[in-house]
Amino acid sequence: MKPTLVILAAGMASRYGSMKQIQSFGPSGETIMDYSIYDAIRAGFGKVVFIIREDFAEQFKSIFEPKLKGKIETDYVYQHLLSFTEGVEVPADRVKPWGTAHAVLCCKGKVNEPFAVINADDYYGKDAFEKAAAFLTTVCNDNTYALVGYELQKTLSENGSVSRGVCSADASQNLTSIVERTKIYRKDEGIVYEDETGLHALPGNCLVSMNYFCFAPGFIDLCHELFTKFLASNVNDLKSEFFIPLAANEFIQSGKGVLKVLPTSAQWFGVTYKEDAPGVQDSINKLIEAGVYPNALWG
């Protein structure tokens, strides 16, 4: 059974200020997502499921359906505020979606095979998709999940600080913790993060999570169970979100299974700040010049 690629594209892109998921970066109008889908097809994924806002569906489909027709199976999931809230009264002024693990929960019934989850606006690289596809087709089961780990130095922005989940793993490459570090940036010859106690150095080769996860379908049921508990405690907090790392952490801590760290040598890039866009375009042009991608992805 071929694995499925789930793309988180329902975000409001508030910090970036526009629908960056459909911004063109490639020479033939390709989005960052196009490169991820192309890499996924090459690596052996059989289907792509887009998680989007329903009010954006027609525009979104008109962009992606013509180019993907006949190349990979597509499906769509809408992340609604009331999905899976089951009788819990959601405050009328809640606008923000419930977060990435809720988005995965919205795939219930649509995704019934091992799957990878990625962000729409991040470039992950060919190597990451090959590692994920190999894991999903040969190792992944209801007790063994994974995340693709990137070298911190390959995930920074030149235009401001970033937040990253710094991973620790044991000798068997099983994740032992993800610690969210905010305000990470280059300083002098090294990389530092800031917290309330000051500046701290981070090694450039430490592995960080860029929200590229590999799961068996049982993870969707776990998200359902945990979302019910999350709502009971957080429904009235208008900014609270139910994130994939929270659910993944619960999976590990409760002894349900292990989460492998799959290290990749890939260079990550993405649009954290508007000023990152020219650099992304430049990076894609260099990959085309190096022969990694054709000039026009979909011919």
Describe this structure in words.
- The protein has 299 residues and is of the alpha/beta class.
- The chain has 7 helices and 13 strands.
- It has helices at 32-43, 57-68, 100-105, 126-138, 218-234, 244-253, 277-289, and strands spanning 4-8, 47-52, 73-78, 115-119, 122-123, 144-151, 162-169, 175-187, 190-195, 198-202, 207-215, 258-263, 269-270.
- A hairpin with a 5-residue loop joins strand 7 (162-169) and strand 8.
- The two termini are 27 Å apart.
Q: Which properties best describe this structure?
A:
single chain; 299 residues; alpha/beta; Spore Coat Polysaccharide Biosynthesis Protein SpsA, Chain A; 11-stranded mixed sheet; two-stranded antiparallel sheet; 13 strands; globular
From the alpha carbons, calculate the radius of gyration and give it in angstroms. 19 Å
At the fold tier of CATH, the topology name is Spore Coat Polysaccharide Biosynthesis Protein SpsA, Chain A
Largest sheet, in brief, is:
11 strands, mixed
End-to-end C-alpha gap? 27 Å
CATH superfamily: Spore Coat Polysaccharide Biosynthesis Protein SpsA, Chain A
How much of the residues is beta strand, in percent?
A: 25-35%
Helices and strands, in order, run as EHEHEHEEHEEEEEEHHEEH
CATH class: Alpha Beta
Number of separate helices: 7
Give the rounded overall mean pLDDT. Answer: 93
Q: Give the tally of structural domains.
A: 1
Shape: globular
Helix coverage percent of residues? Answer: 25-40%
- Tell me the total number of β-strands: 13
Annotated CATH architecture: Alpha-Beta Complex
